[in-house]
């Protein structure tokens, strides 16, 4: 195997390995973009950067003084295109946004593929190791860090059986939930009164217990509890 073959094969193999490492972690977590997607993104980025770095081979017999090589333009195009792909894995469910980490992993995978395509092996390998470390080890740290979690809570009562704001705050305080503003409004033609707002608590929220309490309260007609991360 000659040196010319190695300068193409090594970047491609490195890009596949880096994309596979990041993609395996995403596949293991059952995320929208998994092993194949990350490997393809990394491979495509490496191939395009290889083509840009060796752009003279495109020109054939064109005079060298007419050729202007700028691999940075290819890198810019790759990252812009991957940005559109990343947008496809981000979605909103209720008040929560999902897919941001997967989008970021696709973006860093494209960057790793480009680094391999430019034969910057030390930087590419270090980036791949750090990326996998952030995705896996940081999840362990994230579970153990003190966190404040949020939930949007709306409770609806009949007008003749009102629960005022202070009573609702007291009820939620019993489940270690606190909030700032509380919205008040009449709905259903004035037959129901709604109290709603964002509430927060430290650690795991006791939303299941709260739901069972509200379900058992005869004054409550309807309620919504929507957990989210701020």
Q: What is the ordering of alpha helices and beta strands?
A: HHHHEEHHEHEEEHE
Which runs of at least 5 residues are low in confidence (pLDDT < 50)?
Answer: none
Classification by helices and strands: alpha+beta
| Overall pLDDT | 83
Beta content comes to 15-25%
What are the defining features of this structure?
alpha+beta; 8 helices; MgtC_SapB_SrpB_YhiD_N; MgtC/SapB/SrpB/YhiD_fam; transmembrane helix; Alpha-Beta Plaits; cell membrane; two-stranded antiparallel ribbon; transmembrane; five-stranded antiparallel beta sheet; elongated; 230 residues
Question: Could you please describe the fold and organization of this structure?
Answer:
With 230 residues, the protein is of the alpha+beta class. Helices cover 55% and strands 19% of the residues. It has eight helices and seven strands, in the order ααααββααβαβββαβ. The strands form two sheets. Strands 3, 4, 5, 6 and 7 form a five-stranded antiparallel β-sheet that branches. A hairpin with a 2-residue loop joins strand 1 and strand 2. It is a multi-pass membrane protein. InterPro entries: MgtC/SapB/SrpB/YhiD_fam, MgtC_SapB_SrpB_YhiD_N. It is found in: Cell inner membrane; Cell membrane.
